[in-house]
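Technical annex, item 7. During the second reporting period the consortium partners agreed on a shared format for inverse folding records so that results from different sites could be compared directly. Each record opens with the tokenized structure and is followed by the designed sequence. A conforming record, contributed by the partner at site C, is shown below for reference.
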């Protein structure tokens, strides 16, 4: 009889397998959140009632599946015995949102003949309180996973290899910052590399590039400062001081 696959893996292979498994579920939750946010940003014409109903049904469906997928990430969190001060406090919220989210997931994926499912209503009745909790939990799980990966890597070569491994399997990599900040940061990395290749000749062309780069870096710093303030406010709204 052949041995189970996990029994013949090395410790390093087992660790990578667990990381990729967690990344898979977190990436699916992040994908659904992205689709939900994109749908929420749409503003149907106020006179088109059919388009409004279609929009509302789409964002509600995407929200339901996002919430349900986040519940699976929590199960992975427990299974892997992970811990983080902020996430642990969120999961221990006095309103027991964790249990309500689990029941919500069951209401989404377990068929009921009634259109109004109590398990879904019980969470949604908390309005903005539950919405802040879900939003913060999602963001903090991504933040934790980013930091967790960073602790596993010592050299730049290891960082590149691990990122490539995760992206090759799940076509995703966690980013705790808003997409606009991440995009600007990546653009600046490329711009700095281009500038470093140019001759230091004091030409007007180089001066213009240096000025543009300085302006972009100042914008990035301001964006990160504003995001930090907003993040703290969202944490407070979710009950995390």
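Designed sequence (site C submission):
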């Amino acid at each position: 009889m052949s041995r189970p696959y996990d029994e013949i893996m090395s410790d390093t292979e087992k660790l990578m397998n667990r990381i990729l498994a967690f990344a898979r579920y977190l990436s699916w939750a992040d994908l659904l959140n992205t689709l939900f946010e994109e749908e929420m940003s749409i503003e149907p014409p106020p006179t088109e009632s059919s388009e409004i109903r279609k929009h509302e049904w789409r964002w509600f469906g995407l929200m339901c599946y996002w919430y349900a997928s986040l519940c699976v990430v929590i199960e992975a969190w427990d299974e892997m015995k992970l811990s983080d001060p902020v996430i642990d406090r969120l999961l221990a919220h006095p309103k027991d949102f964790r249990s309500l989210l689990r029941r919500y997931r069951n209401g989404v994926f377990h068929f009921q003949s009634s259109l109004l499912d109590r398990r879904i209503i019980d969470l949604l009745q908390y309005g903005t309180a539950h919405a802040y909790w879900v939003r913060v939990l999602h963001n903090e799980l991504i933040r934790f996973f980013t930091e967790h990966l960073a602790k596993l890597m010592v050299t730049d070569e290891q960082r590149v290899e691990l990122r490539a491994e995760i992206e090759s399997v799940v076509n995703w990599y966690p980013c705790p910052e808003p997409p606009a900040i991440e995009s600007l940061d990546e653009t600046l990395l490329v711009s700095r590399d281009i500038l470093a290749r140019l001759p230091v000749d004091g030409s007007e062309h180089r001066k213009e590039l240096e000025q543009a780069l300085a302006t972009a870096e100042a914008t990035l710093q301001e964006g990160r400062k504003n995001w930090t303030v907003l993040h703290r406010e969202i944490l407070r709204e979710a009950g995390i001081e």
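The mean pLDDT is 87. The CA atoms of residues 75 and 96 lie 15 Å apart. All partners now use this format for quarterly exchanges.
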